[in-house]
Amino acid sequence: MHMTSAIVRQKFLDFFESKGHKIVPSAPLVLKNDPSLLFTNSGMVQFKDYFLGNSISTNRRVADTQKCLRVSGKHNDLEDVGLDTYHHTMFEMLGNWSFGDYFKKEAISWAWELLTGVYELPKDRLYVTVFGGDKGDNLQVDEEAKDLWRTFVQEDRILHGNKKDNFWEMGESGPCGPCSEIHIDLRSEEERMLKAGRDLVNSDHPQVVEIWNLVFIQFNRLASGALVPLPDKHVDTGMGFERLCMAIQAKTSNYDTDVFSPLMDFIAINANVKYGDNIKTDIAIRVMADHIRAVSFAISDGQLPSNTGAGYVIRRILRRAVRYGFSYLNFKEPFIHRLVPLLALQLKDVFPELHQQLEYVSKVVHEEEISFLRTLEKGLKRIENFDKTISGEQAFELYDTFGFPFDLTSLIARERGFLVDEKGFIEEMAKQKTRSKADAAKETGDWVVVLEGDLPAGQAGKPEFIGYDELTSTSKILRYRKVKQKNKELFQLVLDKTPFYAESGGQVGDTGTLEIELEKITVVDTKKENDLIVHWVERLPANLEGIVQAKVNVHQRRLSMANHSATHLLHAALREVLGKHVEQKGSLVNDKILRFDFSHFAAMTSEEVSRVETIVNEKIRENIQLNEQRNVPIEKAKSLGAMALFGEKYGEFVRVITFDPKFSVELCGGTHVKATGNIGLLKIVSESSVAAGVRRIEAVTADGAFEYLNGFYNEMGQIKAQLKNPKDVVASIQALVDEKHGLEKKLEIIYQQQANTLKDILAAKAVKSNGCTLVLERVSVPNADALKNIAYALRNQFDDLLMILAADMEGKPQVAVMIGEKLEATKKYHAGNMVKELARGIDGGGGGQPFFATAGGKDISGLDRVIEKAIKLVQV
Predict the structure, then answer these.
(1) Rounded to an integer, what distance in angstroms lies between the CA atom of residue 238 and that of residue 600?
(2) Non-local CB neighbours of 61 within 8 Å, separated by 6+ positions
(3) How far apart are CA 360 and CA 366, in angstroms?
(4) I want to staple 786 with a disulfide (CB 3.0 to 4.6 A). Which of 67, 755, 778, 801 is the partner?
(5) Contact criterion met (CB below 8 Å) for 43 and 33
């Protein structure tokens, strides 16, 4: 029986549910509170706090299928994707976990039962690896795992792996432990007869691949490198879904499975090519099919393409797909967005968030494609202005500014007969990596425990947050660590309980003070690290074990609360005015301003902005009391009408914030005013575009709103004073604007008359030389349009014209070259090439068409040098 990918996935989840595991949903691809990662890159990421001991799981056995993305950091696979048949950007990781429950015995026996009993994979094609020990860490061979495997497989199929392959680590420090991998040999019988599969395990053979990794987490790696045993032992397994489907469906590539075939077939049909006929088109099809998955789910999880951070990674992935389609499949118009509906339908049941936002995601991808295709055109024009050799710096500029990978630059160069300095490009890339590493350099020390074993049961080192009800607390320091970033030394403190709100959900972290005895220490920021509340301070107290009086900056908090509550009212008002398609796509809330991003496909009219503002202020004046409900079961919260935001990870119990159940009900962990009247006033200061399909409103409330309005009225007073206090300010300004336009038109006529006169003077000075009518002069003109008009007028008068003008344009140097139609046909002169050469005299650059080109510069004193150079060029 053919087993579809949907059945493969469901059988995994059903199997572990039968073994007492709680099936949990995938976490978002985009991470919010983990400073060490931009994206979820493995199944265990959402469970890090359980491994670190910061939280205790309500379920000791868990299983899921997790969306993962590996394109940056330690697992940087982007440039490999598509070139081979087994790398991906986004992939699914099937996993089962034990948090201090079962260990190696169950993990190994269940893995074997599922693979050979449920999926019926042939036992004679499977190999397993165990950790072979490491002298540096003073670790022995994992004999326990080896003995357990002997129950199922022959001795010659159990292989020892080194630390690189068989000792899993979360990062430079943190939980870690030995692992046992299961590999499968998918080669033909003929190939297997020639060489044993055991000799190809972990050798990057495309048909002898790892399909499951069983990690036995039993140590904690300190920043010093030392290993210490964990109090509880955990199991963390990860099985690549796409590779598993390849094995079960008897394919030789992940891309041949039904995970990718619907997308790849659609691409091939529309490109009018057949997959398998040409290596270059095959790579392009794989790149596009893979990349649209990563891009679509990142956007649906809340990450828009941008020029920084995670957004830049998503933009790079999308642009790489566009480049391959443009270069090898002849997609010169936007196409990739057409794959989004196909993908959404394919994964509707397992990851419904994409299907629920189909129009929005498609629109964002479409607009990004349009933008990048324009950039591609600019890059191609940039190459046309290069000489016959593209330097390393120029190749890097094409990569960094226009998104051209080196292979695309090389391809275009070959087509034009150019040379490319590959060595110089590699050097420039190395410089960029060095700069990036310097910018990102951060040293984080180990946590130093100050207080242990004196916490309420079940807290596991996680501080109690009391900031919803209190702005001060009497606390103790649990632990601290030193952080050094960009040569600045800071410290992070964790308290047993704290009133400080940690940055989350768009709301900035609290600031304030910690008073220990007679010492006062400033808290400069409060952040979350996974679920841990971390206070950032510039120095440690002298007595770390003393009683801490923690005090939040009350004024700052109250202003932030007003802005946060206002975003809820704003969200509801936008949905009332614009429609229910409006969804929050991001926010920033601090004590000075609120910024709210939302899905909407057109700029708001002034009437719509005014209506939204009016509704919010009506709700503020109603002084609606806050209804805050804590620890509400997630399903009950949804039944109340609470809005869950895409890209947010919610637990089984949530906090519901309501300002009138018929108006605003949201899931939110932020701090809020007790009644809407405390907001005072909301004033929208701007409405703009952030990205395709996403608008942004910036607004001020409370003190900020009054300051804004006072500033506006003061400015209005100054304007009135300048206009001699007219009764009708608008009419007075309109009269000034009309007068200005009238004067500009008169000035334009004067400029045209001057240009006509100058043209006649230049025509009279023209001389016949070397078969052309030569006009070579230094002139003064008011603007670029005048210079252009003179050039075209002379071209119309002389079909054998060769004009070179060195112009003083109100203190700015400009060079123009114009060639007559008859002279252009001889191809003796090229205006674009000539102007580039001449522009050096004024420290400038430019270009243009073969018959007309201009260049600006910085050095006005160089105009005479331009004339001297021009005389040599035309050989007068």
Answers:
(1) 38
(2) 16, 19, 20, 21, 22, 96, 97, 98, 99, 101, 102
(3) 10
(4) 755
(5) no
Amino acid letter, 553: N
- Beta strand 22-23 pairing with 61-69: parallel
> DSSP assignment, residue 114?
I
- Say if residue 455's pLDDT is above 70: no
Confidence band of 57 (pLDDT split at 50, 70, 90): confident
pLDDT at 74: 46
Residue 735 makes CB contacts below 8 A (sequence gap 6+) with none
**Average pLDDT for 81-106:** 91
Give Rg (Cα) of the chain.
34
User: How confident is the model over 459-470, as pLDDT tens digits?
Assistant: 445 679 999 999
Q: What is the pTM of this model?
A: 0.72
Q: Directed axis angle between helix 606-621 and helix 554-578, to 10°?
A: 130
Residue listed under structure tokens 């196409």:
335
Name the 3-class secondary structure at 84. Answer: coil
The total number of residues written for the chain in this structure: 876
Residue 453 has pLDDT above 60, yes or no: no
pLDDT at site 439: 56
- Residue 495 dihedral angles phi and psi, to the nearest 5°: -100, 160
CA dihedral (493, 496, 501, 503) positive or negative:
positive
For the chain, count helices (H), then strands (E): 25, 35
Nearest-angstrom CA–CA distance, 583 and 600: 8
Q: Residue 365 and residue 343: Cα distance in Å, rounded? A: 13
Residue 566, phi then psi, degrees to nearest 5? -65, -35
Residue-wise pLDDT for 147-160, tens only, equals 999 999 999 999 99
Quote the DSSP letter at residue 450: S
Residues 6+ positions from 446 with CB-CB distance below 8 Å: 173, 222, 223, 224, 481
Residue 697 is encoded by which pair of tokens? 């409103």
Which two tokens mark 539?
A: 């120095």
Task: Name the average pLDDT for the chain.
Answer: 90
